């Protein structure tokens, strides 16, 4: 079974009762809101990755202010030619504040729209689970950095 590990960094940016989200376009064309962020490049520091990704997806310059936690997901899938695969994603989640830039949409990337959303409107948005996990970490600040919404072990 092919194993794949992806490490990514994401930002929870909240100001004036709103959270900054980017709309992710999946490979099947579905559009759902997510936290701005994404995969780290080899050799890149996680804090540098989150700054780069926020700028790429939203146009904003962000300053990470706190490490909120790490979320781990695991998925099994059927790869090309019918071989099974085992994917694990480690998602490093920071609190960050916008310090510059201008809101804009990403062009040619995995997201197509960036916007601020009222916190109380988030439950009604089509969104990935990472949004809820990030906001839970932001609100609760668990000492070990694990959201109560975290996934049970798939072992």
Q: Sheet with the most strands?
A: 4 strands, mixed
What fraction of the residues are assigned to beta strands by DSSP? over 45%
Would you state the CATH class?
A: Alpha Beta
Distance between the termini: 15 Å
Record field, number of beta strands: 8
Mean pLDDT: 93
Strand order of the largest sheet: 5-1-7-6
What count of domains describes the coordinates? 1
Determine the structural class based on helices, strands and strand pairing. alpha+beta
Please name the CATH architecture: Alpha-Beta Complex
The general outline is globular
Order of helices and strands: EEEEEHEEEH
CATH topology: Nucleoside Triphosphate Pyrophosphohydrolase
Q: Flag low-confidence runs.
A: none
Give helix % range. Answer: 10-25%
CATH superfamily: Nucleoside Triphosphate Pyrophosphohydrolase
Using only CA atoms, what is the Rg? Answer: 15 Å
* Count of DSSP H/I helices: 2
